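Issue 218. Parser rejects a valid record. Input:
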Amino acid sequence: MGDMTQLEAGTGRRVSEARERLLRTAGQLFYTEGIHTVGVDRLVTESKVTNATFYRHFPSKEDLAVAYIGSVDQAIRTQIGALTATDVPADAILRGIGASLVEQIRSPGYRGCAFLNAAAEFPAPDHPVHRAVVQHREWFLQTITGLFAGIADTSAEHAGRHFVMLRDGAMSAGYLGDPVLAGETLLRGIEGLLRVHTAGGLDESAAPAPGQAPSAATTVPDIECSPPSA
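Output the parser choked on:
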């Protein structure tokens, strides 16, 4: 159970293997069972580290929870950042994000959005976990708004907020209800929002009629609001 280090690919920075195991284990347990439910003893046992190693890297379980939220946030930032740096059109990226969310919602072991779940466990606005969630959501909203602005400047802020609300609703409905219907509703909503935004108006009647298939979208891989599989 030694605290060995390795070099992080592409950076040359040394990363503690024990810390990474703790973070991976916490990600899976916190997501599937809840942050409050999982104790330090279990995290230590399943990560195969010592108590001393745990507290050397994370002074408290809440510090580990903040790191867990940060790791999911950073993965999403990296994935979307790589896409926005390419020549992929903004509307294709937005459709792809929606398609990937649908895949996640319909996947085995889906337990809702890690960020919304964490915020529900830590409702106090000044709590570090809650603040980490809010910071991610602010970035995500700004990023989505920027993509809509790349299509048309008019009402980009409205479209960005609408997209995030569609996403929040679908991720909750997919866990609490029928994931297939939630996914279909999300894609139809995104397609309708893109049509309205592209037309430069806010008339919701421009959304596709029930039963009308949305335009094809290329799935953007791994845009997930849950930790990666161990």
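Fixed in the parser; the record now loads. Confidence is low (pLDDT under 50) at residues 4-13, 201-210, 212-220.
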